[in-house]
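Data deposition worksheet. Section B asks for the primary sequence of the deposited chain exactly as it was used as input, without tags or linkers unless they were present during the calculation. Section C holds the resulting structure in token form. Section D is free text for depositor observations; keep each observation to a single sentence. Incomplete worksheets are returned to the depositor.
Section A, Depositor: J.P.
Section B:
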Amino acid sequence: MNEVANQSNLPISSSNTTETTANCWHPCRRPDSASTARTFATMRTQQPGSLPEYQVDPYLLLEDDLKDVYTHIRQSLRKNTYQEELYEIATYYFDGQGKAIRPMVALLMARAINYHMYKKNSLLSSQREVSMISEMIHTASLVHDDVIDQSDFRRGKPSVNVVWNHKKVAMAGDFILSVASMHIARLKNDDVSLVLSQVVTDLVQGEFMQLGSKETENERFAHYLTKTYRKTASLKANAMKAVAMLAGADEELSELAYQYGRNLGLGFQLVDDLLDFISSTETMGKPTAADLKLGLATAPVLFACEKYPELNPMIMRRFQNPGDVEKAFELVHKSKGLEQTRFLAKQHCTEAMKLANHLSESPYQKGLVVAADYVLNRMK
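Section C:
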């Protein structure tokens, strides 16, 4: 499994992405796109408040960009239904209490790419749309996850499936996805539509992969990494690629944006899996050891198998026997599984930082570096 872990920093390509290693990047040329250049040259420059170079806070840097994301999503959902209960369910998680990390990094990448290519502190309305779309797709997946997993608690409040019945909740998740698809269509860019549509395909495949497990240790870890990419990292990776493409970026620069998002997404999920073993319910806003209770073997467990092979039969029976969850939790803490998981997360976040450093220096480029550090060191 160490061999698999060492290879995990290689790209996991989606069907619309060239498999390119991250260490081949160099500052990319401005594409020969006269129409895009004219758009940036003539549009009004939007300048959210910036911080000194040595103290970049991405959320403060993007305060003006982020403040209306949830409002605009709720307005869009409202425009597309007059059924009050459907609207209430669909907007339950769009209450502004989330971390909004997906819109935040999409907007950071958009502004960083725009500055890299055009030396303009600008943001296209289509790039802003992608930040909304990414949050809508993510939230729709949370709504569906709550139905599948029978969750009781999320973001510090009762899960949506506790408040409403499962059939209505499942349909509300579909509704959010359908409205997000309408926003994708309004971008009027076939290539970007394909990139963003890949996210939904990956989400479904990742969910199916999560329902199964592999017999051998190496297969199991590779299965876990691919599942993690599809369920979590694909959204960040393809949203990053989409905002770059909308700026008129060439294939090389679009791939850099994609790889930044892929590494950030994998790092994010690895940290999430780590926190499931070390954070309190109050800190996480959801029950800890939740994955074990769902029968899922995440990175800490898979690493712990090296020292405690008795975990293998527990994994295969999805921790269903009495005492399995408690025993697995104990063995993970007795092993180096948590340290190894954090090390792998650090590898991915460090790679994301290196990729961000290939962009022209700007507050937004620095924000991408800070965002990767935030992902690695977050506590919830």
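Section D:
The first strand starts at residue 153 and ends at 154.
The radius of gyration is 21 Å.
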